[in-house]
Amino acid sequence: MRISGSCHRRADPAANRGFSLLELLVVLAIVSIMVALVAPRLAGTVRAITTSGDRIEIARQIGRLPLLARASGHPITIEADQPVQVEGIVFPEGWTVSAVTALRVAANGFCRSAQIRVDDGSLGETWSISAPDCTVAHES
């Protein structure tokens, strides 16, 4: 079989060290499939990590309520079904926190047991706040 002049094979096999276009396309297809399978799981993991950090920050901010009440010398009261909006408390962006039961912190920093609703727009949870120091327990 005759090979055209432009497609002749070299006598030295070491000179043919490249990959063919077909081999490169097969590898690219395999890598693309692997990325398509792994990327959604990675995105879910990143979201879970971010959400976890936000929850910890919300619990920390709620835990500051007794300190704020003592510093101001005034009680903090949030009635049931009202958003938790207290000067000095900042929740992560996109999260809402509201009282399910009345949340009361005395001027001396004593916190009564209560429940709050924590919501990021897609996931809502009910958390318990325990006396006397506003310790937060995650329920769901």
Overview of the structural elements:
This protein is of the alpha+beta class. It has one domain. Helices cover 36% and strands 19% of the residues. It contains two helices and six strands. The protein has a four-stranded antiparallel beta sheet with strand order 2-4-5-6, with helices on one face. The N and C termini lie far apart (75 Å).
Gist?
This protein has 140 residues and is of the alpha+beta class. The chain has one domain (19-138).
Strand portion: 15-25%
> What number is the mean pLDDT?
87
- What does the overall shape look like? rod-shaped
Termini gap: 75 Å
Q: Secondary-structure element sequence?
A: HHEEEEEE
Number of strands: 6
Strand order of the largest sheet: 2-4-5-6
Q: What Rg, in angstroms, do the CA atoms define?
A: 30 Å
**Major sheet size, sense and barrel closure:** 4 strands, antiparallel
The low-confidence runs, each spanning 5 or more residues with pLDDT under 50, are none
Q: What would the keywords be for this entry?
A:
single chain; 140 residues; alpha+beta; four-stranded antiparallel sheet; two-stranded antiparallel sheet; 2 helices; 6 strands; 36% helix
Which secondary structure elements does this structure contain, and how are they paired or packed?
Blueprint: H1 21-63, H2 65-72, E1 76-78, E2 96-99, E3 103-105, E4 114-119, E5 124-130, E6 135-138
Antiparallel strand pairs: 1-3, 2-4, 4-5, 5-6
